[in-house]
Design goal:
The chain has 160 residues and is of the alpha/beta class. It contains five helices and six strands. Strands 1, 2, 3, 4, 5 and 6 form a six-stranded mixed sheet that branches.
Length: 160
């Protein structure tokens, strides 16, 4: 069994909820998973895969996520890595596309981080805008299940 770390590189409730959902979904598939706050992670050696979650704020990947990947660059280059971001959804598909383009641009700018999978989970920009479900558990669960196979964390037919 491969060991996986899900990192919540933020204080954002929405991104941390999604990170917990990712970790729980992977555990249900039989994957050994730790869920940690990015600033509390000092060593990645014991993990085969790392999933990094953080929000986009004002079009930028949150500083804590950027610091995490910079601090652990050498070891992350040798690991399977996936990235998800939570981003504003006011504006529907256009807002999703902007968030997607921004995280791709950020990762491209790094020049070295090449995630196995990337995803944007929409969240409410303002509490009074009913544009989407900030904790779309079925979407997060489906992405996590697909990710477990793509990262070779679980067999495609492993469901518990």
């Amino acid at each position: 069994m491969r060991n996986c770390l899900v990192v919540c590189a933020t204080k954002s409730d929405k991104a941390c909820q999604a990170a917990a959902q990712v970790a729980n979904t992977l555990r249900a598939r039989g994957v050994a998973v730790d869920l940690e706050c990015g600033r509390d992670v000092s060593d990645l050696d014991e993990y085969d895969a790392v999933i990094i979650g953080a929000p986009l704020r004002h079009g930028r990947w949150q500083r804590a996520a950027r610091r995490f990947v910079k601090r652990h660059r050498e070891i992350l280059e040798a690991k399977d890595v996936a990235v998800f971001v939570s981003g504003p959804c006011a504006g529907g598909a256009e807002a999703y596309d902007r968030s997607w383009n921004r995280i791709i641009k950020t990762l491209t700018r790094l020049g070295w981080l090449d995630p196995v999978r990337i995803e944007v989970f929409p969240e409410l920009e303002h509490n009074d805008l009913p544009c989407c479900d900030p904790g779309d558990q079925s979407r997060v669960a489906q992405w996590s299940q697909n990710l477990s196979v793509a990262m070779h964390l679980a067999d495609s037919d492993t469901y518990r």
